[in-house]
Design the sequence.
């Protein structure tokens, strides 16, 4: 046995606890690394900015232009909305993308500290691997340990993709929903925004107005469900991707990397785009009044009728 399948831990592992009051997990460490990488990325991409971009600045501006066009495509002619939505959408997309891509970097989930207490219990099942590699003691080159055989999965990784931590994905989902509600109050006013959820005036219409009341209350449930769907979708896809890479690296080492790493890169990009795009769409819906929505539907219906008349 060259190695064993790595242990799966749903919760992030604590790798350092200074003073016993501030536990630092492997996902928190990678979150800090992601932030520092993004700061360096934009610093070097804009420090020598020129009117005619070239090189690295051209790549950075291409990303920004893509996100600007994405926001404008959803918001339309409301430039005031676009200016307010863009920082949120761009921040979500770029941060999540960078965090997701850590999953395919060498050393992620594989470099860490030995679990000394568990290694001590392995003892009786030791056997040399390939005649010379130890299976119960790590092969060491200074501070670096190469694990084989029975102890190959007894490691606490120092690095783990930030988005495999449910705490982070829930926090981002709360920010997304919270920002949507804030913009709803800002653009519509408290009275009109709250009427989306508590439309008791509809009872004046008679029994049919009760449907509008129930729909409004269902909107509250929808907002809460959005937090769950946002956080678990991102967490589930990236965490599952980590397990897929680990499983196939165990079954088909080297070959699996060629097949599944490009797939994981695709998933990383798509999940970042989905989170950012859904946030943008919900912000646009949350800042649109019922009257404006109905007027838009009437305009679209008139366009369709005019098209049918012209065709006739």
Sequence:
């Amino acid at each position: 046995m060259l190695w064993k399948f790595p242990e799966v831990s749903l919760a992030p592992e604590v790798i350092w606890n200074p003073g016993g009051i501030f536990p630092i997990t492997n996902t928190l460490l990678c979150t800090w690394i992601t932030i520092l990488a993004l700061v360096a990325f934009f610093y070097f991409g804009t420090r020598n900015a020129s009117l005619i971009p070239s090189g690295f600045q051209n790549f950075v501006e291409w990303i920004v232009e893509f996100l600007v066009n994405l926001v404008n495509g959803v918001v339309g002619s409301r430039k005031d909305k676009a200016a307010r939505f863009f920082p949120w959408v761009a921040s979500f997309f770029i941060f999540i993308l960078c965090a997701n891509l850590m999953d395919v970097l060498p050393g992620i989930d594989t470099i860490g500290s030995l679990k000394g207490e568990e290694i001590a219990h392995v003892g009786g099942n030791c056997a040399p691997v390939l005649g010379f590699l130890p299976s119960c003691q790590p092969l060491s080159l200074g501070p670096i340990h190469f694990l084989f055989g029975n102890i190959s999965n007894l490691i606490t990784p120092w690095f783990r993709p930030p988005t495999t931590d449910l705490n982070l994905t829930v926090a981002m989902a709360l920010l997304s929903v919270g920002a949507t509600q804030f913009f709803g109050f800002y653009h519509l006013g408290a009275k009109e925004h709250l009427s989306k959820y508590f439309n008791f005036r509809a009872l004046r219409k008679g029994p049919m107005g009760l449907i509008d009341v129930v729909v409004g209350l269902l909107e509250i449930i929808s907002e809460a469900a959005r937090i769950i769907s946002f956080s678990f979708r991102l967490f589930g896809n990236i965490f599952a991707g980590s397990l897929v890479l680990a499983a196939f690296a165990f079954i088909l080492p080297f070959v699996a990397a060629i097949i599944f790493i490009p797939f994981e890169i695709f998933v990383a990009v798509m999940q970042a785009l989905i989170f950012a795009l859904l946030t943008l769409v919900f912000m646009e819906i949350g800042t649109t009044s019922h009257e404006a929505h109905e007027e838009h539907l009437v305009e679209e219906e008139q366009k369709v009728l005019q098209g049918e008349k012209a065709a006739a």
Summary: Residues 14-111+158-311 form one domain. DSSP finds nine helices and six strands in the chain. The first strand starts at residue 14 and ends at 16.
